[in-house]
Amino acid sequence: MSILSQHTATARRQRTEYQAPTFAQSVWLVSNREITARLRSKAFLISTGILLLLTIASVIVAGIVSANPPLTKVAVLDSTSEVVEATGVLEAVSASGVAEAEEMVRDGTVSAAVVPATGADSVLDVRVIALDSVPTSVLGALSVIPDVTVLEPAAQPEVLIYFVAIGFGLVFFLSAMTFGTTIAQSVVEEKQTRVVEILMSAIPVRALMAGKVVGNTIMAFAQITLIGVLVSASMAVTGQHVLLTDIGGPIIWFIVFFTFGFVLIAALYAATASMVSRQEDVGSVTAPVMMLVMIPYFLVIFFNNNPLVLAIMSYVPFSAPVGMPMRMFLGTAEWWEPLLSLAILLVTTWGVVVLGSRIYSNSLLRMGGRVKFTEALSARSGS
Amino acid sequence: MLEVAAINKHYGARQVLTDVNFTIGDGRMTGFVGANGSGKTTTMRIILGVLAADSGQVLLDGIPLTAEVRRRFGYMPEERGLYPKMRVQEQLVYLARLHGVPPKAAADNADALLERLGLTERARDLVESLSLGNQQRAQIAAALVHDPEFLVLDEPFSGLDPIAVETVLGVLRDYAAGGAPVLFSSHQLDLVERLCDDLVIIADGSIRAAGPSQLLRDEHSTPRFELHANSDVGWLRQVSGVNVLEFDGSWAQFEAESESVSQAVLREALERGSVTSFGRDRPSLATIFKEVIQ
What is the DSSP secondary-structure string of B42-92? Predict the structure, then answer.
C-alpha cells in the first residue's frame, strides 16, 4: 500500500509519528553521508592510493639507502692499499703507478687517488690526488683523529631528523589540506545547490556542521592511521627495527594530535566556506586557513634543528601536531609536555568550534556575494 | 490548525514582514499569493524555523512550534536543490532519515513516492542526470518522503510541464484530503484558484486578505449577474431595480439592486422558458489580487 493512499484513509492524528532523531543521531547521519560521498569519489580514492604508495616507497628507499652506504672508490698503489683499507669506508682500486692512478681520477673511475708521499717534509706517508677540489671525505677517512668526548650526544643523526621532520610536516599538510578542502567544498555544494534549506528545516544547523566535521575527521584519522601503520610495517619488513622503536611513540602521538588538530582546522574550513555561495570563491575565502596549515610544514622543515622554534611550535595549537611529535622523536620533550600541549589544543579547538558554528549558522542562508566576517559573527538574521 | 501570529521581521533597516497573521486549517489547501519580494518566502522560512522572526510566533493547535514538531513538517523551498551526485532514491531515504523515519520505512516511503510521481525508473540515477522536470518531481518527493504533518511548498509548480502539474496537483490534493494542512505559494493564479480552499494575500510584508477563497470572492464580487437563456431576454430592461449592462439576444449581464430582485429575475426567466445559466459574476482571483494589493 502506498503511503499516499494511507493519507486519504487516515486523519492527521492517526498518522505514524516518527521520533525526531536526537542531536547525536543527526550528526551521525550527516557524517555517514559525508564518508559515503567521499568513498564514492574516484578522485579521492586515487589520490589516497598514490599517497599511501609514496609513503611505503619512501620508507623502503630510505631503508635501502641507509643499509648500504656506497663506499667512496679510491685508487691505490700497492704501498698505499693497506692505509686505505684500514679506514673501512674507502674502497681501494689498484693502480699500477701514479700515472695510471691520476688517469683514473681524471676519467672519474675513482673519487681520488692515494699514492706514496713525495715531499721529504710530509707528515704522513701518503699523498692524495683529487680532480678539482679537496676530497674532504677521503681526507676525513685518512686523518688521524684525537679522542673525542661528546657531552650531550644527539639522540638521532641529523639526516634522519630532517627526513622525519619532512615526513610529519608533509603528512600533516597533505591530509589537513585534502580533508579541509573537502569539507569546504561540501559546505558550498549544499549552499550552491540550495539543498541546505531542506537540511536546515530537518536538523539543527549545528548538527549539520558537526556531522561534516566528524565525518571528515574520521576519514582524516583513518588516512593518518593507515599511513602510520604502513610506515611501521614497512620499517619492520625492511629491517629498520632501531628506527621503528624510536619513531613508534611519536607516530602514535602524531595521530592523536592530528585528530584533534584536524577538528579545529575542519571547523575553520566549514565556517569560512559558508561565507561564500559558489565553488569558484572557495579558494580565496579559505586561503587564510590554508596558510595556517602550511606554516607548520615550512617551520618544521627549516627549523627542525632549532629547539626554541620547535618548543614554541609544540604548544601553538596549529603546529602542535607536527611540533610535539618531532620533539618527542628528538627526545627533548618531558613526559608531561604532550599532555599539556594536548590540553591547550583541546581548549582552542572547543573555542574555534563554537565560533565557527556561529559563523556557519549566520552565513548559511545568505546567498550571492561573500558574507562580511563581522556580519557573519554578529548578525542573527539571514536574507 | 497552524496559526501564524503577529510575525515581524526586518533585514537591516528594511521591514519585510509587519504583523503577519493568518491560519491554515487541517485538511485545507491554502494558497499564499503575493508579488515578488512581498515576503512569502520569508514567512515560509519562519514557519519552518529556518529563519527566526523578530517577534510573534507560530502555533500548532495553540502550542508554539518547537524544533521537534517542525521536524515533522515537509518543506519544498523555492530555491530548488538536492545533492547532484547522489542517487535519487538514496537521497530521499537520507532526507527521510534526517526527519527521523526508520531505515525500512524511509525506503518504502521513497519507493512509493517515486512510483506515484513516475520516477521509479530513475530511482538509481544521479540527480544531476535527471531532466529539469524530473528533478522538480524528485524535489516534491523530498518534501513528502517523511510523511509530514504539515506541508509548506514555495512555488511548487514553477518549471513544471502541464502533465507534471497535474501529477503534482493530484499528490497534493491527496495529501490535504488526508488531513494535513498544506500551504503553498504560486504566481500561477489560475492554479491557485482551482486548487485552494483558503487564500492568503500578502503585499509589502503585510496580509491584505485571508480566508476561504469562496468567501473572498463573494466579498469582492459586485452585484452583477449573468443570465443565459434559450430565448431572447430583452424583457430584462423593463424589470425595476435592474440595470442591464450588456445584452446580446439570449444573454445579458445586469446589475441588480438587491438579492431579491435578482431572484425575481431568475423566476421570471424560468417562467418564460428554460435557463442555461444564471449566476453572480464572480471576480477572478487575478482581479481580487489586483484590488487588494493596491
Answer: HHHHHHHTSS--SEEEEEETTEE--HHHHTTEEEE-SS----TTSBHHHHH
* Same domain, residue pair A238 and A283: yes
- Angstrom distance (rounded) from CA B241 to CA B261: 7
CB contact under 8 A, A197 and B81: yes
Query: A205-237 and A23-40 helices cross at what angle (nearest 10)?
Result: 50
Give the position of cell 543527526.
A26
pTM for the complete prediction? 0.77
Residue-wise pLDDT tens digits, B89-98 = 999 999 999 9
Q: Tell me the pLDDT tens digit for each residue of B32-77.
A: 998 888 889 899 989 988 888 889 989 988 888 888 888 888 888 8
Alpha helices in A193-238 (DSSP H): 195-202, 205-237
Do A99 and A220 lie in one domain? The reply is no
The C-alpha cell 611501521 sits at A232
A53 and A76 in a single domain? The answer is: no
Put simply, the answer to whether B149 touches A195 (Cβ < 8 Å) is: no
Phi, psi angle pair for B93, to nearest 5°? -65, -45
- Number of compact structural domains in chain B: 2
- The reply to whether residue B83 touches residue A195, judged by beta carbons under 8 angstroms, is yes
Query: Would the pLDDT of A8 be above 50?
Result: no
Contact residues on chain B for A5, CB-CB shorter than 8 A: 174
Encode burial over B248-285: b for 16+ CB neighbours within 10 A, e otherwise: eebebbbbbeeeebbebbbeebeeeeebeebebebbeb
Q: Which among B48, B79, B177 is the nearest to A194, CB-wise? A: B79
Owner of C-alpha cell 536538523 = A203
State the nearest Cα–Cα gap between B291 and chain A, in angstroms: 29
A3 interaction partners in chain B (CB closer than 8 Å): 108-109, 112-113, 147
A25 → chain B, closest CA residue? B98
Asked if the Cβ–Cβ distance from A194 to B146 is below 8 Å, we say no
B169 touches chain A (CB under 8 A): no
Tell me the sheet residues that pair with B8: B55
In this predicted structure, the answer to whether residue A13 has a pLDDT above a threshold of 50 is no
Tell me the CA distances in angstroms from A105 to A85, A87, A115, B101, one per residue in order: 18, 20, 12, 82
CATH code of the domain in which B162 resides: 3.40.50.300
Distance (Å) from the C-alpha of residue A197 to the closest C-alpha of chain B? Answer: 7
Domain, as residue range, for A216: 24-62+155-378
Predicted confidence (pLDDT) at residue B139 exceeds the cutoff of 50: yes
